[in-house]
Amino acid sequence: MPKQQFKLVYTKELIPKVHFFTFQTEAETNFVPGQFFSLEVAPKVNRSYSTVQCGKIAPNFFDEGLPNLEVGEYASFMISTKPGGDASKFFEEIQLGTSLQAVGPAGQFKLHLNDQAKVFIATGTGLAPFIGIIDQELSINPESKITVFFGCWKISDNFAPEFLAKFADKSKYPNFNLFVVPEDLEGGSESEFVKMGRVTTVIPAVYSDYVKTDFYICGHPLMVADMAIVLENLGAVEKQNLFMEKFGVVKKTV
User: Fold this and answer.
1) To which H or E segment does residue 223 belong?
2) Architecture of domain 117-252 in CATH?
């Protein structure tokens, strides 16, 4: 896989211990939405991270103020430093202007072009690959039926709307819906699109059109495995319509 230098040009803390980083690449990357890059966090130590967005158009999730590029691209990531290891320390301390070696893009987790409805199930930074995939799908068919379930520990940990805001415009994307699934409402109440619990229990309660739906799952390996079992046990989800990524480990059931 190709190697090149990435230079950090923007950073923002989304919630405590979860960060958004944008790097400028040396050259074009041939990135496909859903793929990941391996970033060097120490000499000969690489960690793989799914990519939020990659291209010459500047990311505009937070009015970053970056210009569009003629040379190179922007590559953006959501990175959790909760694990506390060497990579966590590196990204807690990284400064604007820092350069690092990156390898990629890589991975087979991507959009499957068809007429199926699509459900995206993510917890935490597992949302990252879905942003580009959803953008790709709705660019092709703005009326595509897209449902996102975003699981988080506390309702205040919900950063999904910041990345999916443009899809909330019903005049452009009439069939896009986002469900937020916190385990702790922190004194708040449920609503039509906020359901307390875990994605493994909420999805069977609120979603029923399984037969003609592709399911994409990304997040902690235990969540991904449990969610796959739940969907398979429903008896209506075809294995060829179930796509999973366990934080860098890609698997398609066949």
Assistant:
1) helix 221-233
2) 3-Layer(aba) Sandwich (3.40)
